[in-house]
Amino acid sequence: MESQNLADFPRPVHHRIPNFKGSYLACQNISNLEVFARAQEVKVDPDKPLEGVRLLALQSKKTLLVPTPRLRTGLFNRITPPPGATKDILRKCATSQGVRNYSVPVGLDSRVLVDLVMVGSIAVSEKGWRIGKGEGYADLEYAMMVSMGAVSQGTPVVTIVHDCQVIDIPEVLLEDHDLTVDYILTPTRVIATGCERPKPTGITWSKISCEMMARIPILRSLRSREKQAGKDVTLQDEHQHLETCGQHTAPPSTVRRPWDPPQPESGSVQGEDVPSNTVYIGNLPQDTRVSELKRALRERGAAPLRLTWQGPQHRAFLHYQDPASAQQAISCLQGLHLGTNTLRVALARQQRASDLESCTRTITQPSDL
Length: 369
Prior knowledge:
By secondary structure, the chain is an alpha+beta fold. Helix content is 27%, strand content 17%. Strands 4-3-2-1-5-8-9-10 form an eight-stranded mixed sheet. Strands 16-11-13-12-17 form a five-stranded antiparallel sheet. A two-stranded antiparallel sheet has the order 6-7.
């Protein structure tokens, strides 16, 4: 698209949903679709080539929902033009700046029923297979809408691309969580794909990492709801941890390293591997403050019930409600850095009372965490 000068602002179009010359013309084709004419609530991605559809939705007085960028502050924003908005104001509302200035967030408990879903694409096939930027946000947004009851298998999905972006895509590249499209609009064509491949039926939690959970607050809320409903919400990192636990491992070394937690005496009850709700954090930088560790734990979605601080020993112990919560925290905290140090994170064995009482500061107030 760049080499043939098909691309349009913003350029270059690498690493984004590409805008192209003729995108507004392609957007006008949405007016010819019955699914748009009868839609009342329309979800349109914030990508530049979809700006024309956002404008048409506002001009048609439809409810326009736009996902928040990277889902950092929620799932949707509802675009709300000021009363008596002129055509120029509506055009501003349809831009990325207008989305920021003329929108209100839509909460998880809001009753939303999306009649039409508009997504951007890098490439798409006439069969309805779609490739995005590779970050999975469009797929995740759709799966989250399914979990909210906002869309169903019958909700049409439309994409807008340049003609050169319509290519053959091998079905082998698709996975169950990938979103397919029902209509493709280009500057010269309206393609009904007739795609019969099932769309995602909800969030595939085994594809979600703890890092993503920490970045997207609404995911944590949805996971809590689905967990209460009895669904399997095991995360990607937790699946990997369970698989690793099932593999044969060599016996631990008897050599103590400075960052290792103290080991109970062999043969004692404390020396046995027993279920624990306590997580050991080691290799803390010398000048680390307890507030810095608490902030990092919150950001990873792993705040404990209590925290036992042993700063002089460069370690801390996190106490959780049950062993399952402790294991989940371990998965979420893998690779955690403070300063230049990568922290050691492991399930703590039961410690002798003297180990936990010496040089400790135990924080029990919920407000502290």
